[in-house]
Design goal:
mainly alpha, 2 strands, binds heme C, Cyt_CIE, electron transport, Cyt_c-like_dom_sf
């Protein structure tokens, strides 16, 4: 009887771990945003589109994700200011930068 309880507990833990896994990407995007991108995108410093501001983001989202990724990874200068390559986080992996783009886009839709 006691063993059975232990087994059930282990099974429950495995299930919990499995259900957490798919959320990992979203969490990374938020983490990257909070460590690098927020410096400009939280307040709009330097002309950056503001986090969660739909009017700021709508015309950018219209360009499509491939363009947003390209600009976030390689940097770009638009009418408002300059987005530095990888937001200045030069050690960030491509996937981390893209996850941060996904995170900002998701919060502005
Ligand atoms: C030093 C300030 C700064 C930081 C840090 C920064 N950005 Fe930006 N970002 C900008 C500015 C300014 C623009 C707008 C440029 C323009 O349109 O004139 C911009 C625009 C963008 C855009 C829209 C591109 C487009 O095509 O319209 C994306 C996507 C973006 N940033 C992603 C990121 C991500 C992801 C990070 C963090 C890894 C980040 N930014 C960090 C300043 C910054």
């Amino acid at each position: 009887m006691k063993n059975r309880k232990v087994l059930l507990a282990a099974f429950g833990f495995a299930l919990a771990a499995a259900s957490v896994a798919p959320a990992a990407n979203a969490a990374d995007g938020e983490k990257v945003f909070k460590s690098v991108c927020f410096m400009c995108h939280q307040t709009g410093a330097g002309g950056a589109p503001v986090f969660g501001n739909k009017a700021d983001w709508a015309p950018r989202i219209k360009q499509g994700k491939p363009t947003l990724y390209k600009h976030a990874l390689g940097g770009f200068t638009g009418n408002n200011g300059t987005m530095p390559p990888r937001g200045g986080g030069s050690s960030l992996k491509d996937d981390e930068v893209k996850a941060a783009v996904d995170f900002m886009v998701a919060k502005a839709q």
